[in-house]
Amino acid sequence: MSQELFATRHLGIRPEDLPAMLKAVGVQSLDELIEQVVPHDIRLPKRLALPEPVTEWQYLEEVRSKALRNKVYRSLIGRGYYGTCLPPVIQRNVFENPTWYTSYTPYQAEISQGRLEALLNFQTMVVSLTGMEIANASLLDEGTAAAEAMIMSYGLRSRQAVKEGRNLFVVDTEVFTQTYDVLVTRSAPLGIELLQTDLDSYQFTGKEFGLLVQYPDAMGKVRNFKGLTERAHAAEVLVTVAADILSLALLVPPGEWGADIAVGSTQRFGIPMGCGGPHAAYFATRDKFKRSMPGRIIGVSVDRHGNPALRMALQTREQHIKREKATSNICTAQALLATMAGFFAVYHGPEGIRRIAENAHRAALLAHHALQKAGYKLAEGPFFDTILVDSRGEAVIKLRKLAEDAHFNFHHSLKGIGLSFDELTTDDEVEWVVELFCQAQGKRAVPLPAEVEECIPPELRRTSPILTEKVFNSYRSETEMMRYIYKLEQRDIALNHSMIPLGSCTMKLNSAASMIPLSWPEFGNIHPFAPAYQMVGTREILQETEDFLAEITGFAKTSLQPNSGAAGEYAGLLVIRAYHIANGQRQRTTVLIPASAHGTNPASAVMAGATIVTVDCDTKGNIDIEDLRRKAEEHRDTLGAFMVTYPSTHGIFESRIREMVDIIHRCGGQVYMDGANMNAQVGLTSPGYIGADVCHLNLHKTFAIPHGGGGPGVGAICVAEHLVKFLPGHSVVYMGYHPEAIHAVSSAPWGSAFVVPITYAYIRMMGPEGLTHASQYAILAANYLAAKLKDSYGVVYSGETGRVGHEVIVDCRNCKADYDVESADIARRLMDYGFHAPTLSFPVHETLMVEPTESESKAELDRFCEALEAIRAEMEAIKQGNADREDNVLKNAPHTAPELVANEWKHPYTREQAAYPLEWIRECKFWPYVSRIDAGYGDRNLVCTCG
Ligand SMILES: *Cc1c(COP(=O)(O)O)cnc(C)c1O
């Protein structure tokens, strides 16, 4: 074969570099190293049963043929998913641009100003359209956003309400089915009672703490909730509304009629339906609730020079700090999709967004009028974009067939046929749809009226302006838009600039071949509730990916539904809970979590109704097995699960993992393995082989889905045979019948189905050998860094054989005492060298956790070490008295261009030392757009929208 195998492109280390690297590590061969790293008793006895690899070219041919097996019909199904046009300027410059899709969550704010501004635009857009006071930078989907609103309302109960045991959340009958389903899932473990009822006629009883309505409602009707809201507030009930963001251009927004929380999807702002997701949900509320709000909030602060600078605000609410007291478990959200939806609003501006809303609305008015003329009975308005046709009688059966023959999907339900119009609708389309309805009656088509009467009464019509901020009124030509996007992207470090050595995040190559099919309409334009025969290709990819992941984890079955790692943790714990309940062991709610665990673990466990018991770690960072045994036995009657990350969050393959599993099983608990570190396991060992019962995988880490600046993610869970029947179902789409299945954890049946082909591509192109090599190379790269950095910095933890796993924790704990320098200073100084910092102070305070992954070359690893060593020398200079203790390159990092070219330069070091401390930086200098940001200032003066 003349084509190179993909593995040779994916793996950064060249064969000719191997000898030098092995020598530095001090082993003869890669196998010898792996022998030392991975405990013998958990090594897989045979290679993975996966298909042989295909080349990139072959893959694209193969996936092309799958794409062609999807049928792209025009879906007017609505129910949360609508036709929309992703503007090509955003498709090419954002969606298909590695600067935007390979960047990480903007923890390192100084090198993330571009995506922070894009997310601030999103927040501003949400605030403007909803009329609320504050919005976050996206949640996972509409259903989970509604659940977060329910939980936030629950948490905001007054002391009196808590004492009275108020625990009822009332949901209007006309809320999307999938949203209600997610609420069922999320309410049960917390003891929240749900009641679904017609809220217009509801009398509050004093048991309610919150309510949810949909605006316009699920049948398309725009209801006036002002009276309900007043009654609710009088009864101390918080009002959440799931609102269609586009409709708010025309309707009085929730903020103006008194809602407390507004949630919804921003899919129809240019994001492909993609068989259900990923799409950015929004969450907006009142300013006074900002500290209880889930998810990330971007805020404006100032940098060292007093210039405005953006960063994630109120970080003290984060799970890592608050653990089981965190407000939610949201970590990865939908940053890339929020960025795109924000740009959609930037490009279209207020007139454009109103035009798009009016287009959908006018089409609905036209169709409503014409169908009534044709003799159909329709639900009464007012409506925005969705009309409901009464469909009793035989015309319906004919209509279904006629519509499908004409390649249309309508929404069929007991209540009638729903038609949701959108940005893509034209008059021709409306005419066509009307004609189909006439044909079904055997009648001649009714012409569309020239004029239609507005159905939205004045009291529901929006009069306040939208999107008044400058950014939404500046970029109308494609040239201007392209340059705005480019201006922002130059402020960010992503994988196309340099290695992103974030430990626990696995920032590996996201190959172009795996990304290309996402731009195809055959994958993008599929409505998740379209009939199965229209998504044969997508379903094959989903099914095969599920099977591959089950094989890789050594488990029986996979669910792709959870749309982030934390959502996977939650889903996995619920599956365990359902298993215990089915066994009559409802009391098994104690969850053991090691002190070293990722913060999402305890946060997810609390959401799943668990009581958390923390297990100690010993001085070497390993789980203290005696403490585990003691606590498991002490709680043996209520033990539900043990959550363990493997290799540990310290990057170590603990040798006694099997013993830990045994201890838990003997006490009646289940073992949940956090698979975020799966990149060290694939092909070498597996959670199933080790004996765990469930694991989640972060497909956006190990399996090559790009991180998108903070999402999308896929937190697939894999389970052992005895748990298969509990995997999440879906209320709209048939997922295989299991009466004991838990309710949905996401709005969409396969969560973020649209990005699953990336993982599919990765596994197909790597093949069983390639995947195993990836794990081996990832381990080699980490051990190479450990060998190179152990003298200059020191390595915090290593295993029994003195080796690390796939990541290495670099010690900076003495830097404060020795040099007056903190790990955060080192992180910022790395920016001057053109690097994104490693993971800071997790899981050990004042350390840098480095995960090089298999995709980095030896040359890049060497450059990174050289940078760290140069920084070490800069610290040494402080100690020697050759640099000032306060005014030095570390404390003042990062250095911006304006600062360096200013006429005045008062620092005791040179500009060259600041900007070009090493020769090769000249080749490709990254210029931080802002200097060190004052986070505290921003939190004290919280500003979360742009001017
Ligand atoms: C990344 C990570 C998670 C959370 O995943 P998200 O997709 O961000 O929710 C959980 N556990 C560990 C160890 C992780 O590294």
From TrEMBL:
Reaction equations catalysed: N(6)-[(R)-lipoyl]-L-lysyl-[glycine-cleavage complex H protein] + glycine + H(+) = N(6)-[(R)-S(8)-aminomethyldihydrolipoyl]-L-lysyl-[glycine-cleavage complex H protein] + CO2
Specify the Glycine cleavage system P-protein N-terminal domain's residue ranges: 9-437, 452-731
Spell out where the chain crosses the membrane: none
Q: Where is the Glycine dehydrogenase C-terminal domain?
A: 774-895
Q: Which GO terms describe its cellular component?
A: cytosol; glycine cleavage complex
Q: In this chain, where does the modification N6-(pyridoxal phosphate)lysine occur?
A: K701
Keywords, A to Z, come to: Oxidoreductase, Pyridoxal phosphate
Matching CDD domains: GDC-P
Oxidoreductase: is it a keyword of this entry?
yes
Instruction: Report the EC code(s) recorded for this entry.
Output: 1.4.4.2
Query: PANTHER family this protein is in?
Result: GLYCINE DEHYDROGENASE (DECARBOXYLATING), MITOCHONDRIAL (PTHR11773:SF1), GLYCINE DEHYDROGENASE, DECARBOXYLATING (PTHR11773)
Family indicated by similarity: Belongs to the GcvP family.
Q: What is this protein called?
A: glycine dehydrogenase (aminomethyl-transferring)
